[in-house]
Predict the structure.
Amino acid sequence: MSSEPSAATETGGNETEGNMNRNRDEDEAGAGDIDDVSVVGAGTMGYGIALAYATGGCEVRLYDVDDDAVERAKRNVRSGLDSLAAVGRLTETESRSVADRIGCESDFERAVAESDLVTEAVPEDVELKRETFARLDEHAPAEAILATNTSGLSITEISTAVSDPSRVVGTHWFNPAHVVPGVEVIRGERTANETIDRTTALLERIGKTPIVVERDIRGFIGNRLQLAMAYEAFSLLDRGVADAETIDRAARSTFGFRLPASGVFEKVDQSGLDVQADVTEYLLPDLDRGTDPHKVLSALVREGNLGTKTGRGIYDWSDRDLDELNAERDRELLALLDAYESNAAE
Ligand code: NAD
């Protein structure tokens, strides 16, 4: 997805290819050679990553071991395209050409044989990731960039499964990947500068905001911040301080409302560092600094209540259709994306 309304969107004409060629001409950082992308694992993240690359002009092959997952991914791609079209980010013609650029492939070797970049999005299990990378080492072109979408495992550890770890990089996308602008680009201990530069340039070319994380630290930046907040939220729930609706209302309407405008540190500067130091001193000892999942979380997981995918998590989703829920979430986030892009353009 282009971060700007595309020329075709503005004129209503079919200028998709022209728009993409322009993006390639403007590409000065070395991603102009990346046209073919493969995504291994077509689940929650895989379909969105495929959609983001295809919307940005790449040819994408999507592979999964599970045929049902591939069928679900096809449905999700269609629904993602509908959401983008509904807010005017794609014309109907563009939607069709994006869909045509995503090919589903059931044979691993064929799926990766001609790739310039492969993104792995299989479940978060380091051994499975290492096995997948060992297969990529064997079957993907020797010069292809090999990216992992791990949420926080060590890029360095995953990279040792291939003979040349300098081409392995973390690209940590956020769900829904075709909408959320930021993608963390994580340097493993042996990742080459060229791998970082080409990956970053590619992400910029497709309209994303790459965030280079120079140290291979578990959870990177985004998930460390996210988990710190969620841990305290679960603690408040566990201690009966407030119910989930109240905590979510507070997060959305107070500090969460402000985050897109100020981030963390601009806000702190605006409040005053003296205030920050005072609050840190008296509040930190009172925060939950445990190391285990909270009782409420463990109990729900034990009971098989895993969230929207099982119909029940913290909330009851049993009367909601999952596809509709995803479409509703995409629409809400796409409205926020407009604001993000106009801020970024200032
Ligand atoms: P998921 O379970 O929805 O999808 C994983 C897919 O991989 C499934 O379709 C499964 O059939 C497939 N798979 C399993 N073994 C495979 C193999 N050997 N080869 C090919 N496909 C295989 O998981 P997800 O939520 O999409 O997460 C994928 C990765 O992305 C994980 O590392 C996760 O931590 C990370 N991640 C997830 C989120 C999120 O919000 N879900 C966000 C950022 C990163």
Notes: The longest helix spans residues 322-345.
